[in-house]
Each structure stands twice: as C-alpha cells, then as structure tokens.
Design goal:
Structural class: alpha+beta
Mean pLDDT: 87
Helix content: 25-40%
Radius of gyration: 31 Å
Distance between the termini: 62 Å
Shape: globular
CATH class of the largest domain: Alpha Beta
Low-confidence stretches: none
Strand order of the largest sheet: 1-3-4-5-7-6-2
Number of helices: 17
CATH architecture of the largest domain: 3-Layer(aba) Sandwich
C-alpha cells in the first residue's frame, strides 16, 4: 500500500484554493511554533470588505484543524470600516507570531471538540474552514451580533488577561457564591475571600487593560474599575483602606465572575496617599478564571434530553458497597441521586487490604466501614453538594417491610451479588402493599467474571405477569438451567483469612455498574425496562450465550408461580 504524503497533499490543496506560501524569513516567532506550512490569502465578503487571512497546518498529521490568523493591521482595517468593533475582538488571541512586524492573532475555531477532521478529504476540510471563517467575520461586522458575541466572550477575555498576567494560570473554584468561599488549589482547603459586587446593568470595557503592553498594576485595575462601576470602585478603595493584608478578591455580577490577586501589605499608620502606600499601587495584578462549582449543573450538562431529569426526583435505597456497589453508588450520584431526594446506602463491612484491587475506594480508606468511607469520598468529590446521601453501617437483616411502608422508596438496588440477600429482599418486598412497593434492581457477577447480570423487577409488572429473582432459581439449587448464562461453569474459589472468596477482575464490577446504569436510563427515558433480565459477557468468553429476555412467572417460583400462563 502506498504511503500518503500528507504534506504534499496540503500544499496542492492550498494552491488550488488560491493560497500563497509565507516565507519564514518574513516571520518572527518562537522556535516551538511550526510555520513550515503557513499560507495567506485575501478572503472576499461579497462587496462589503475583504480580509487577508493566514492558514497554518501546524499538525501535518491532520488530527486537528489548521490554525487561522489575521494580522494586527487587518484588525485595524476592520475597526476603521466598522466603528462598533473594539478591542478585544471576540475569539481572537495573540499568537506570538509576527509577519512583517505585525502580530498575528489566532481565530478560535470552536470546532475542535465537535467536528471530525475529514483527513481523507482535504477539499471538505478547506470548505469547513472557510465557511466557519466567513460566518465568524459576518458576525463581527454586524453590530447587534457583535455585541451579543462580545458579552458571551467574557470568559475568553479573562483567559487572555490570565495569560498576560499569570504564567501559572491558576484558576479558582467558587464553592459557595453566597459566602464567597473558594477552594484553594495549593492547600486544597476552602477559604473565604473578599468580594466586590458589580452593578448587573453595566458592561466592562476591557480595552483599558488589553491594550497594555506592560505588566498590569493595581493602578491599571483602578482605572478599569472606575470606568466600569463608580460605586464598586469606591467600595474597592474602602477595602484597600480598611484591610492591612489583601491577596484575593472575587469580582462578580449577574453576567461576570472572575478573580484578581495582588500583594497589598500597607502601612496602617499612614494614609492611602502616603508615599509608602502609593508605591503599592504599582504592584502587579494577576487575573484568575473562576469556575462556579456546581455538581448538579455538571450532571445536567452531560445527560441527553431523554434522560434529562436523571435521578433527581427519585428516592434510592442501595444495599452493598463492594466491588459492584462502590462503582454503582458513584455512578448513581453522577446521574442525580442524593441531591434533591434521599439516597441511602447500607453496608456493615470494613474495607480490607484485599478489597482494594477491585474496589472504587483506595488504600487511604482501609480499615474504615465502607459506608462511612464512601460518604467521606463522595463528599470530597462533590464538595458536600450531594446533601441527601446517607451512608449507614447497617445490615439488610435489620430492615423489614414496615420500613419501606413508612419511608417511601422509588428503587432498591441490590448490589451485593449475594443470592441470600437477593432472596431476603425479594421476600420482604412482597409483603409491602403494591402502592408502596419499590422497584428492585438486582446486579451480580457470574462465576469468575465470564459475565454480569441484572434483573429489573417492577412491582406492577410482577403483579400482572410475574418475574422476580426467585423465578430464576434459589439459594438451594442455583439458577434454573434455562436461565444459566454459562453452561457447566467451573468456578474458581480461593480461601482467605477465615473466609472464601471468588476471584474476578476489577472490570466486572464496572461492567455490572454499566449494565445497571443503562437499565436505569432506559427506565428514566421510557418508564420501563423492556427486557428485564439482561446479561453482558466479557470479551474473552466465546461459548454459548443467552439473550436478554422479558422474565415472566416461573411455575416453580414461590412468589409468582400462580401467575404463570
């Protein structure tokens, strides 16, 4: 097979599209930026205007789109032709490349995460690039669209200021907006900081800051703030007068939030205008991106519309925090459990050294009860935002059907993988009146991990046509032959300290969790799980497999036998 000469293909397509090469002798750039495939072209926008653009294939493997630049001179030309355009122009960032003494500014694509790069069709690639560039500049020259784009581009402007003022690019996580508490990146501890509230009706003019070629100082921020909001500016002066030490300030309004930091160690015995304190005004200011930490928003962002409500409106009761239960509980929280309604997890075992190899929880939790350890883990992951989670050091034998009548639960998840627990839960639930009876989801690993299985038992469906864990088999005889996922399984057992255990890899607990979450999402989207007895095999297993089925009453089942038809 002939190997592609991608570089040659790029040169040919650029020539066909009217681009001319740029000599590296015309450039001033850092050594780490590749400009061997930098080309330029005048792009015409009907009879309105034209712009010289530069295209740079920095990645000749074509795993990403090329960079697009326009020069500072072209930006001046745009501003002269369209007076509503002012610095910083949205989605343009300095590239550190200079062409004939003019700095080139990179156009942010907003394509890289959403468009597949058509590596094998360079004509299509060029069409995508130029279509986007045309759409971008049509937006910029339209005054109404420019204002909208500018307001939405706030985070990009702050990013630019962060790049200019803080080489470490330290961001802040805003844990509690009401109390101005951030998570300190260095200490990983929460701390309260000073806050400056801006009038929601005012928009900032960042040109005061972005037009600077030097290090930004407290004085520069003074001037910027005075133009933005005079009341906030006066409050800022009061903060400087009142506080001997200031390092971090949160700047916020309805539309904007960012942080600034600077050194302010003033002489308390002197006024703000005294020379000792006036010197401090030349101290550098650093800008910081502020991430509003909202775990719920993160969940909603990732759920497709058909699963949009997730588990926020459901009360969940999970049994077991072992190899399946740890991953399952973590995943349930990431689709909404424990934020607005109760998520109760019970397990009375401690995490032991031998558990760590296939458990969500790591070595730092060894010796702790799993329920308490998981609560510590998840509170740290969510910064205590999942306030309805309870981890209880209890055994399911301590619960009876009366509990579930008095405490309405939507779903019981049995993640123990124990047939004894499966039977006990099934027997207990049958005593609950139908109007209070929760759905049960049983999850387990079969054998040494040849497959994982799940059974979804909806009370109304069981009432009508049967289908419960006892329809599959019992602790006395195992699964009935027709439901066996693996025929003649030779299950390996090992002896531990005062106990036996079944070896299987970490992947099986994860696979069981994946199966369970998919069944849950089907229920959230459609109100039911069509095939309620499901099996997922590992990739190594190649013998006879069973299909997912709708389990109905088995005549041998003590709970559902009479419903068999």
């Amino acid at each position: 097979m002939r190997k592609r000469n991608i570089q040659q293909e790029i040169i040919i397509i650029l020539s066909k599209w009217g681009y001319e090469p740029v000599s590296e002798n015309e450039l001033l750039k850092p050594d780490n930026i590749n400009c061997s495939l930098l080309y330029r072209k005048n792009l015409y926008f009907e009879n309105l205007f034209n712009i010289e653009i530069f295209i740079n294939f920095t990645d000749d493997s074509l795993l990403s789109y090329p960079e697009i630049y326009i020069s500072e001179a072209q930006m001046d030309k745009l501003r002269a032709r369209f007076p509503h355009i002012y610095n910083p122009i949205p989605h343009l960032e300095p590239s550190k490349i200079f062409y004939k003494d003019n700095e080139l500014f990179s156009v942010c694509y907003q394509l890289h995460d959403s468009n597949i790069v058509p590596r094998t069709n360079l004509f299509m690639l060029m069409n995508i690039v130029e279509t986007y560039i045309r759409n971008y500049f049509y937006k910029i020259v339209d005054q109404q669209q420019y204002i909208k784009e500018y307001n939405e581009y706030f985070i990009g402007i702050i990013n630019l200021l962060v790049t200019c003022t803080d080489s470490s690019k330290e961001s802040w996580i805003l844990y509690s907006p009401e109390e101005n508490i951030i998570l300190d990146n260095c200490s990983q501890k929460l701390k309260k900081i000073l806050s400056l509230k801006i009038n929601d009706n005012y928009n900032p003019d960042f040109t005061v800051l972005t037009n600077h070629k030097k290090q930004l100082t407290i004085t520069d921020f003074f001037n910027f703030l005075r133009l933005w909001d005079k009341v906030a500016y006066q409050h800022f002066i009061k903060l400087l007068k009142k506080n001997k030490l200031i390092y971090n300030i949160l700047i916020s309004s309805k539309n904007f939030v960012f942080g600034i930091s600077f050194s302010w160690i003033r002489n308390e015995t002197k006024g703000l205008k005294h020379i000792d304190n006036k010197k401090l005004l030349q101290n550098p200011v650093k800008f910081h991106i502020v991430h509003k930490y909202d775990f719920k928003s993160s969940i909603l962002r990732n759920l497709p519309n058909e699963f949009r409500q997730g588990l926020f409106d459901k009360k969940i009761f999970q049994i077991g925090l072992g190899a399946i239960g740890g991953y399952m509980a973590d995943a349930l929280i990431k689709i909404g459990a424990g934020f607005e309604n109760d998520f109760i997890i019970i397990d009375n075992d401690r995490l032991e050294n031998g558990n760590v190899g296939r458990h969500l929880l790591g070595i730092e939790y060894i010796g702790l009860y799993k329920a308490e350890a998981f609560l510590k883990y998840i509170n740290r992951q969510t910064l205590d935002q999942a306030k309805k989670i309870r981890g209880l050091v209890e055994n399911i034998r301590e619960y009876s059907y009366q509990y579930f009548i008095q405490n309405k639960i939507d779903l019981i998840i049995d993640a123990t993988g124990s047939i004894e627990v499966q039977e006990y839960v099934n027997e207990m639930v049958q005593d609950i009146p139908l109007q209070y009876r929760p759905i049960i989801l049983h999850l387990w690993i079969y054998g040494n991990g040849e497959c994982v299985q799940g059974l979804w038992v909806h009370p109304k469906e069981q009432q009508e046509s049967g289908g419960c864990i006892s329809c599959l088999g019992s602790s006395g005889i195992g699964l009935y032959n027709q439901y066996l996922p693996v025929i003649d399984a030779d299950v390996e057992q090992r002896i531990g300290v005062c106990s036996a255990f079944t070896p299987y890899a970490i992947s099986e607990g994860m696979m069981a969790t994946s199966l369970g979450i998919n069944m849950l999402l089907e229920w959230i989207a459609t109100g039911k799980v069509q095939n309620n007895y499901q099996t997922r095999y590992n990739s190594k297993y190649s013998d006879k497999k069973i299909e997912d089925i709708k389990l109905v009453a088995n005549p041998l089942c003590p709970m559902c036998g009479e419903k068999n038809v």
